Structures are given as structure tokens and as C-alpha cells.
Amino acid sequence: MRSTVSKMLRSQAKLLDFGRRQWTVSCLSRFLSQDSKLTLVEVDDETGITTLTMNRPPVNSCNLELLQDLKESIKQIECNKSRGLILTSSNDRVFSSGLDLNEMHKPNQERLVAFWRTLQEMWLSLYLCSVPTAAAINGHALAVGCVLSAACEYRVMLPGFNIGIHATKFGYVVPPFIVNSYLSVLPRFIVERALLQGKLFTTEEALQVQLIDEVANSKNEAISKCADFITSFAGTNPEARALTKRQFRDQDVQLLIDDPEGQLHECLEYINSPFMQDNLDGYLAKLKSKNKK
Amino acid sequence: MRSTVSKMLRSQAKLLDFGRRQWTVSCLSRFLSQDSKLTLVEVDDETGITTLTMNRPPVNSCNLELLQDLKESIKQIECNKSRGLILTSSNDRVFSSGLDLNEMHKPNQERLVAFWRTLQEMWLSLYLCSVPTAAAINGHALAVGCVLSAACEYRVMLPGFNIGIHATKFGYVVPPFIVNSYLSVLPRFIVERALLQGKLFTTEEALQVQLIDEVANSKNEAISKCADFITSFAGTNPEARALTKRQFRDQDVQLLIDDPEGQLHECLEYINSPFMQDNLDGYLAKLKSKNKK
Amino acid sequence: MRSTVSKMLRSQAKLLDFGRRQWTVSCLSRFLSQDSKLTLVEVDDETGITTLTMNRPPVNSCNLELLQDLKESIKQIECNKSRGLILTSSNDRVFSSGLDLNEMHKPNQERLVAFWRTLQEMWLSLYLCSVPTAAAINGHALAVGCVLSAACEYRVMLPGFNIGIHATKFGYVVPPFIVNSYLSVLPRFIVERALLQGKLFTTEEALQVQLIDEVANSKNEAISKCADFITSFAGTNPEARALTKRQFRDQDVQLLIDDPEGQLHECLEYINSPFMQDNLDGYLAKLKSKNKK
Q1: Segment C241-246 mean pLDDT
Q2: How far is CA B92 from CA A211, B39, B59, B290, C241, in A?
Q3: Which residues 223-262 of A have a C-beta within 8 angstroms of B?
Q4: Can you give the C-alpha Rg of chain A in angstroms?
Q5: Residue C34's pLDDT band (boundaries 50, 70, 90)?
Q6: DSSP state, A60?
Q7: In sequence order, which residues have a C-beta less than 8 Å from that of residue B98 and are 6 or more positions away?
């Protein structure tokens, strides 16, 4: 761990002591919108735990607007000092199909910049979220769907679905923050092979390699198991828990925090390359003809 | 691994070739005291293995003096070119309860500096100890008790006890060297969760995640199993073994070796913060009322 | 991961788009020799997979010439855009006995420089090879024999043999690239212990810790299982696969790519030290007397 970690810790310790008022004010001044249609935010009055539901039909593919909503909702849940956050889907077959490839195929450049910047920021919000996080994976979790799950601290999945990052299947090379996200959950040799093969794990395979922690037979049971995990922190000091998490995960996000625009620029360059655009052409055509049948 | 590792290796290779005399002299000139009361050092004449017993009643909580004794004893064992070091406790219920929180609560600043500096140095001595090390964990190993065990190369534990780092329970954020110590033994995702939950593993749970290597039914059996581990190095070249260990572990201690005073300063700042002092107030009051019942 | 990774990725993305012609030219202009006697290169016309067989009697100990042949063969296979590479041995008892210690014992300095430089370059070629790689380990894989296996993406081994890095047994401290190679396959705590003990795993032990992926009952079966692994990449984009592998492994080879001559220099200094030469004296004498019996 680098000295930046220590600096952060020290400055956060100061924050804890001197800055609580300001933090609260900044949170209150955040626009507390009603649920958008793309995400639903519900607090369980009994447990104090918040459920964040992705709700972009048909398959929760992440376009700019869903990413923005997710980012705002995560920040709001954190500011409200929720007991914890459970991420799930309103679709009972698909948790998330990943990024909306239309955002990347022959893109409008201005929108592409906003799209990828929001992806980076949303992922950071979830990965570094100060409250306990868990994913109730009630359907297929593909590509960014898997990345969102891996960014949480706990994963419960329903049987009969797939989870994984299949980027090599459509010619995409995932950026370092996505690799790190996988590495935070799985042993290195499994990550390398899964990334190279574009492996989609069945629920059973995912449990075996511990990509998920538990299997549940219904969405309700999955949410209840996630709540049990979140409740396991009852005896801990929330600030110390949050700082420990931040210190632990900080090394994985160094690049993205130190140089977000550099990371953004490199990803955009890759997305805009003829190599990647050709791959997307082919992949989207294949998907289209598959859907016609 | 960084080039400093290589530099160290090279300079150690030179040391091995040219400096053996000096090393021996420096070791002999070290004050070879009789056992203090806080630690016992015994050499098994048959095996050549040294047992280092923590002996600060009632529960081996680590105050400044115990840390100093441990550090000196480890250095002495290393200098005497013992076949190996087995760390254990004279108490048959508690291996170590961790740091003596009285050293950190409303502390005398001068003593606090000595206390934390000695903790850092003692831990380095054990973690980088050139002879094979093993822990015979014959009781609860809490917080620094667990850290000491994890710094050894092998762990044998008696059933019915707990081991773990429960710092988040009393509002403490462990410094990087303690995180690295845990990471040297356990997979990353287990470390993160255990640190955040302040998890104390039962002997059985510890065996399952391989925080310990074996379970023994008595202290004697634990020591005997530790001795077997140490004997497994019989066929190796001791200098090559020591250099390989040093090279392997060097990356984990970089921060502490490059900038011990900076690390010290940050830890003291955190300990002295009102946030941490309040947490200690509450935790010590709770312990006190618990002990009265 | 460092920014160099991103730079590499970006430059490789450019390479993919603009430089395909040049790459092909450079490959074609490489001297496509017939098999030397020290390695055999065979392409399976049906699968398009290439088998690379080490063939230096009696035990495939790696001298300068074998290392040169291996390096050239790996480059050739990569340039020919083979479907994959399977590494095996023509000897049915020994995959490889490791480095030829005669290259390191009382060495001719000029030859020693060439020997170690070729070792570094050959290992880089295999570790970063753009096509899928697998090892059919049909005999003992000792020291560099194990390192070669670990550099591949998949390992199938025949029963009744040993695999491991036993350098501490003859007083050698392995350089960082060999440590990283072990760490790319095994959990950290297993690597440390195995390196310190100079542990040779039986086939069964190797399977248990997942140093190997599968056991096969014959060389043919091993090669067939390796081919199955290579075929598992059929659905992926070869360029994206190659870039993902390169990005993933790049952090492990940073030292060797940034400063090959520095790494070389330090290894030579160590090999030439009286300490290491004395160890080799003793070890080679022991081997000699053992072989006489």
C-alpha cells in the first residue's frame, strides 16, 4: 500500500473529527429526487437497509441514463447513512446484460465521453461505498452486470443463471479497473483464465470458485440473505468499518482516482479504433440475426 | 517486486560472503540477558529449536515492556543461529489478548512513541526472522495476538479458542503492516471481510480458511507439530532459505522500512484523535463493567 | 496496474489497426529453420495446434543452446499464428531437470552472460506468448522445468512424477521473475512455503494445490487435454485475447522488461559469488557420487 493511502486515512480521520457537519450539509444539499424510472430506491423501515433496483427494460443494459441514476442513488444511500445497500433487478431473468453497446457503436463523441466518465464514477461510488453492500443477483449478470456484483461486498445468486465478463467474445479488452474488480473477489489464476476465455459461470460454478457467496431459491430469499450479511456488521463501529474498507480498496482504484481523464482517454481511443468498431459491427449483427429467429 | 529487493539481495549476498565475522561479532556483543519475567526463552538441546513463551499475566496483553522483551528475544534467537523459533504462551487460556489498550488510552506521549515504535520493530523482527518460525497457539489469539501468529511461517492451534483481528469492534483502523500481515496468510477476499467484520475465527473456522495449518490437542502436541515443520527445512541451505524469505517478504514491509517514522507519526495521530479516544473510552468502560459482573 | 500497461495497450491497439502488415513481414523474415535437434516443432494439421518438444538427452537440462532453440521456436510459433502451443518432452521420465548447472559452475563469463540473457528472453517469450499455451508434463519438472510449466496457461501432468522449484536445496535464491511465475499460478502462502522448503510436489499434491489442472494417464492423453483447453478459446477474438493476456501479465514482467541488463547483472553477481560457487561444488559432487552408485 502506498503513502497516499496513509494520507487519505489521515485526512479522513480529520474529516471524522472536524468535518461531520459539513459532510451532512453536503449530503442534504444533494437533490433528493423521487425514484427515477430507471432505478428504484426502497428503505426497509424495520432493518434500515436500502434496496436499489435496476429497472431499465428489457434487460437492464447500462446506457448513460441508467449509469447516472445508479451513481446518484448510491451517493444518496451513502449520504442518508443507510444501514446497507442491496443491489438487485426488477427483471426476473436478467440482473444486467452489461453496457448498452449502442453507446459504444458508431458513437456520438460527446455522449460517449459522458457515458464512459459516468461509468467510471458510478463504479467508484459502488466500490468505495462507505455502507455495507450486497448484490441479490436474480438473473443473468453479464459483463458490467458481473462487475457491479463484484464491486459489492457479498453476492447471493439464484440458480439457473450465468455470471461473468465475456469481453473477449466481442473483441473488447477490459480496462484495469474492471480487472481489479474481478481480482478483489477471485484468485488470480482463475481471473486470468476467466477473462481470456470470456467465461460465463453458471450459478453452481460461480459458487464453487466463490465468485458468489450463497445461492437462494427466490429473490426474496436472496434479499433476506443479503440483509443477514449486512446485519453481521452490527457490532462494529461504522466509521472504522468505512475507513478500513476505504484503505483496503484504495490501492485498486489508484489509477482511476489519480488520473480519471487519462483512463477515460485511453478507453475512448480503444473504443473508437477501427478494430473495436469492426468487432462491434460483427457482434451486433450476430445478436440482431439471433433475435430475429 | 521493486529494485530495492534486488539491491537488498545483492547487498545481502555480499554480506554472506564478506561479512560473516562482523555479523557474529555484532550478535555476540548483544547483551545476552537471562530470561526476563515477561518472556521465557528455552532451547531444546535435542532439536536445537528455541521456544519463546509470552508470560505477562493475566492475558499477555502487549505493553511496552512485553514488546521490548519480545523484540530482544527474537533478535537473540536469530543471532544464536537457532534451528527455529516457536512462539507460545504460558497461559493455558490466552495466547495474547492483543495490545494493552491502556498504552493507547489517554496516553503519556513519550511512552506512546516508544510503545508504537517498539511494536513496529518487534513485528519486523518476527516477520523477517531469518530462522524458521512457528506459533503454538494454546489459547485465544486476539488482535496483535493474531498478528504475531500470522507473522510466523506456520500455525498450530488448540481447539476451543478464537483468533482474529477485531479492531473495527473498538473503532480502530489497522495500519498497512497489519493488513499485509493478514494478506500474507489468507486470500484477499477473506481478509477484507474478516477485517471489516472484526471477525474472530473459531479454531475450526481458522483451519477451514487456512489461517492455521493444524489443530493439536495439547500444548505439547502443538509444539511438537511446530518442531516437525521447522525440521522440514533440514535439507535446505540456511542462508539461501533466509535470503529467499527476506526477498519474498520484503515487498510487504517496504513502507515500514523506508519510512518508519512517517508510519509511526500517522498511527499516533490517529490514536490521539478525539474519535479514537472516545471509542477507547466506551470500549474500556464496557470491558470494565463486563469484568465486574 | 501501472500506466505503462495502459501505454502498452494503447500502442498495441494502434499496432492492431495500423501495423498488421509490418508484423507479418517481420515474422516472415525470421529465419524459419527446420527443427534443430534440441527441440521438435510439429503442427497438427487438423487442430492447427503446434507441439514444441524439448529433446536434449538425457534429461532436458537447459544449457545455452536448448534455451536459444526454445526461444526461437516460441517466436516462430507465435509468428505463424498457430492456434496454440503445447510444450512437452521427448523423454518419458523427465520433462526437464532444470538449468544445466555446468553453465553456472566455474563459468566462462562470456557464455554465462549469453546463457542468462537467453533464459530471461526465452521465459518472457513463453510467459507473454500471444497464442494459448499449455504444458503436457510427461515426466519430472524440476526448477526451470517447473517454471516453464508455470509460464503456460494450463498444465496436464502424468502420475508418478515430481514438480517444483528446489533452489534452496542447492543454495540458490531465485530471482523475482521466477517468484512471480510461481505466484501467477499458486496462492501466495503456498508459494512462500514451497520456495523456502525447496518443495517438490508429487503429481497428486500438485493437483491438490492446483499447480497442475489435470492428470492424464499417457502423453497422448495429456496432449489431447491440452488441445481441449486451447480449443476452449475458439469463440474468442484472438487479438482481444492476446491483448488481455498481455495487459494481465505485464505487471509481473515490469522489472525484466524495464531493466533486463540490471536484472541480468544482479543474477550474474550472485552466481559468481564464492557463496554460490561453493554451494554448486558441494551439490554437483553429491550428484556425481550418487550417480556412481
Answers
A1: 96
A2: 39, 15, 10, 21, 56
A3: 232-233, 235-237, 239-241, 243-245, 247-249
A4: 19
A5: very low
A6: -
A7: B61, B62, B142, B143, B144, B145, B146
What would the grid cell of residue B221 be?
502436541
Residue in B168, B262, B274 nearest the CB of A236 = B168
Q: Using CB atoms, which chains have 3+ pairs under 8 A with C?
A: A, B
CB contact under 8 A, C171 and B210: no
**Band of residue B31 on the pLDDT scale cut at 50, 70, 90:** very low
pLDDT, tens digit, 9 for 90 and up, residues A192-222: 999 999 999 999 999 999 999 999 999 999 9
Q: Please write the tens of the pLDDT for every residue from B118-177.
A: 999 999 999 999 999 999 999 999 999 999 999 999 999 999 999 999 999 989 999 999
Query: pLDDT digits over A99-140, tens only?
Result: 999 999 999 999 999 999 999 999 999 999 999 999 999 999
Can you give the three-state secondary structure of B214-273, one letter per residue? EECCCHHHHHHHHHHHHHCCCCCCHHHHHHHHHHHHHHHHHHHHHCHHHHHHHHHHHHHC
pLDDT per residue over A3-50, tens digit each? Answer: 444 454 444 444 444 334 334 444 544 444 444 589 999 999 999 999
Quickly count: other Cβ atoms within 10 Å of residue B193's Cβ: 16
Place of cell 485475447: C241
Q: List CB contacts of A11: < 8 A, sequence separation 6 or more.
A: none
The x, y and z cell numbers of residue C174, run together, are 531465485
| Residues comprising chain C, all counted | 293
Give the model's confidence band at B207: pLDDT under 50 very low, under 70 low, under 90 confident, else very high: very high
Is pLDDT above 50 for B274? yes
Question: Which DSSP helix (H) or strand (E) runs through B28?
Answer: helix B20-29
**Chain A residues lying within 8 Å of B176, measured CB to CB:** 1, 5-6, 247
pLDDT at B213: 98
Separation of alpha carbons A249 and A180, rounded Å = 10
CA distances from B120 to B64, B105, B259, B264 (A): 12, 19, 11, 8
* B176/A10 CB distance under 8 A: no
Which residue among A171, A176, A180 places its CB closest to the CB of C237? A171
Kindly list the partner chains of chain A, i.e. chains with 3 or more CB atom pairs below 8 Å.
B, C
The answer to whether residue B4 neighbours chain C at the CB level (below 8 Å) is no
How many angstroms from the chain centroid is the CA of residue B153?
A: 11
Work out the number of other CB atoms within 10 angstroms of the CB of residue B58: 9
ipTM for the predicted complex comes to 0.88
Burial of B275 (0-12, 13-18, 19+ CB in 10 A): buried
Q: What residues contact residue A279 under an 8 Å CB cut-off, 6+ apart?
A: A170, A171, A172, C237, C240
The residue ranges of DSSP E strands in chain B, in sequence order, are 39-43, 49-54, 61-62, 84-89, 94-96, 98-99, 133-137, 140-142, 155-157, 162-164, 200-202, 214-215
The minimum CA-CA distance between B27 and chain A, rounded to whole Å, is 33
**Cell numbers found for residue A271:** 473504443
Kindly list the residues from chain C whose CB atom is less than 8 angstroms away from the CB atom of residue A193: 153
d(CA A226, CA B263): 37
Residues 6+ apart with CB under 8 A from A71: A118, A121, A122, A125
Question: Model's pTM, two decimal places?
Answer: 0.89
Return the amino acid letter for B75: K
Beta-carbon separation of B16 and C189 below 8 A: no
Rounded mean pLDDT of C182-193? 96
| Res B36: pLDDT | 57
Q: Which residues of A touch B198 (CB under 8 A)?
A: 235-236
